[in-house]
Design goal:
The protein has 306 residues and is of the alpha+beta class. The chain folds into 2 domains: 143 residues, Jelly Rolls, CATH 2.60.120; 142 residues, Reverse transcriptase/Diguanylate cyclase domain (Alpha-Beta Plaits, 2-Layer Sandwich), CATH 3.30.70.270. It has 9 helices and 15 strands. The chain has a 5-stranded mixed sheet, with helices on both faces. Strands 1-8-3-6 form a 4-stranded antiparallel sheet. A 4-stranded antiparallel sheet has the order 2-7-4-5, with no helix packed on it. The protein is globular.
């Protein structure tokens, strides 16, 4: 990703949305890039932190414990971590771990303060981020209270791929549908089926099958916008929700995703290259009375027609 592409990404990010490109170009000269391998830890509780990290590609998990299978948040391209330390001058309070391979932009707190002092828009953006963090903390607190009173905690993240699972999508699809209808917005649903995944398991065992699933999920995350949602429905089924997206743009996203997956090498942990994955795709638009089953059914019909 070159400097022009990074500035374009920053101008669409929650922190620097609509900030002048000249200010971001100056900021970029004082920032550095950081690469993380999957499952590599960026921050741990108690660690001193004097930087904000913007995700250029990949996805980060925010979690309370290092082995937590139900992270507090999944953050994608354009989103930031490390902003809380800037305001209270305190240590990190959560684990920040790479759910996929990541490229980050590391910016010293002093440089971010300079932007906030100069740009009213950046200050508004930061307030919105902090407000969302407070809402998220309140939600986690409520869930913890339910757990203390005997309610079974739910796992909404797929253990193999690190993206949301079928349970999360099934429980949230009505809310997402109603939000888009209320705002008179389109939302596209992309269903992807890995046609030869069973052969992967037969020839290369569970390690090969798991690595194929992870590769598909990581490639999806690289190709999506921060507000898009990637999910793993079952072993060979993946789905993507594209908010504010009509059919034509969904077709473009799908083409880009298929091209990216076809060019991505799948390799075992030992480094052995595996054959490419064959994907079938179906696209549908959210409708007023949709459930997850109806969406999958309509997308499957589109897949068969294609």
């Amino acid at each position: 990703m070159n400097s022009t592409e990074i500035i374009s990404l920053l101008q669409g990010s929650p922190l620097f949305r609509k900030v002048k490109s000249s200010m971001l170009a100056s900021l970029l000269m004082k920032a550095t890039r950081v690469m993380l391998a999957p499952e590599q830890t960026l921050m741990t509780p108690g660690q001193q932190n004097d930087r904000i990290y913007i995700i250029l590609s990949g996805r980060l998990r925010v979690q309370v414990t290092v082995y937590d299978t139900n992270p507090l948040a999944l953050l994608g391209a354009g989103e930031c971590v490390g902003e809380m330390s800037m305001f209270d001058d305190d240590c990190a309070s959560s684990y920040i771990i790479a759910a996929t391979g990541c490229e980050l932009l590391s910016i010293p707190h002093a440089e971010v303060w300079a932007i906030l002092n100069e740009s009213l828009q950046a200050s508004h953006n930061m307030l919105n981020i902090l407000a969302n963090r407070v809402r998220s903390s309140n939600r986690v607190l409520a869930e913890n209270m339910e757990s203390m009173h005997g309610y079974q905690p739910l796992n909404y993240v797929d253990a193999i791929t690190g993206v949301y699972n079928r349970r999360w999508l099934s429980e949230n699809i009505v809310r997402l549908t109603q939000r888009h209808i209320r705002n008179n917005q389109q939302c596209a649903f992309i269903l992807l089926k890995a046609e030869n995944l069973k052969q992967f398991a037969a020839y290369f065992g569970s390690l090969g099958s798991d690595e194929a699933q992870r590769t598909i999920a990581q490639t999806m995350l690289r190709c999506l916008r921060p507000n898009d949602v990637a999910t793993h429905i079952s072993e060979d089924l993946f789905a993507i929700l594209l908010p504010q997206t009509e059919q034509e743009n969904a077709n473009i996203v799908t083409g880009r995703l298929l091209a990216e997956i076809s060019q991505t090498t799948i390799a075992t942990p030992s480094g052995d290259a595996l054959p490419p994955i064959t994907l079938s795709v179906g696209i549908s638009q959210l409708q007023p009375r949709d459930t997850l089953d109806s969406l999958i059914s309509r997308a499957t019909s589109a897949m068969c027609s294609a």
